User: Fold this.
Amino acid sequence: MEWVDTHTHCNDEAYAGEQDAVVERAVRAGVRRMIQADIDSRERPGSFALAARYPGVLFSMLGLYPGSVTRDWQAEVDALAAWRDRGVVALGEIGLDYHWSQEFRREQKDALYAQFQLAAAWDLPVNIHLRDATDDFFSVLDNCRNLGLRGNLHAFSGSIETFRRLERYGDWRIGVGGVVTFKKASLQEVVRAVPLERILLETDAPYLAPTPLRGTRNESANLPLIAAKVAELKETDLETVAAVTTANAEQLFGLCDKIPAKHPSC
Ligand SMILES: [Zn+2]
Assistant:
């Protein structure tokens, strides 16, 4: 069995000096492909350099993270174009986050709108980070209805109603990570109700380590623990979860078009 981690941060400072070991441990655990979320211009060179060492294994997203949006967001968004020809598979992680600060709400919405325009112009899916801003997210999406956007809500924490609302916008899916393994997580009900064909697996490493590793530094190698919980909730076997979620990732992110030598599952 093999897996795709659709949202991870292999170059995070939590792995300083051992990024290669992190990638290699994941591959040995069957997580043969990983998609790295982009944060901002400060983190970008390091994570793209790491991805360049692992063609066909590490893939890159490109985008300005909502937590990095300030008054100067336009310069950050303008800087994205210089990176788009480096095998980028999505605009991400982009979105809205009002959890820690509401200071730049207006700017976050403007930056999201601008990056939705880029996703459409570059024909790329979007990987969304959304926290405590659901209605504003849908209002930006409403303003972009004509763009035919496709993508996923990473680390989905919404209700089944939010998923149904999302479905009305076309090809949208949800990213499921370590939270699904936590006791009494409402995400478990969501996973039971959402078709497996709409689910992508992710770790968001180094954050959100699954049970029984909760609270420790997470790694992409832990993805099978998340998959096992999804299999239990969907009352199916691990092979089915591997096959369906891998196909979902390949399809949404166009992984089979972006690799130098075709991957066996493509
Ligand atoms: Zn992330």
Remarks:
- The chain has a mean pLDDT of 96.
- The chain has one domain: 3-258.
- The longest helix spans residues 105-121.
- DSSP finds ten helices and eight strands in the chain.
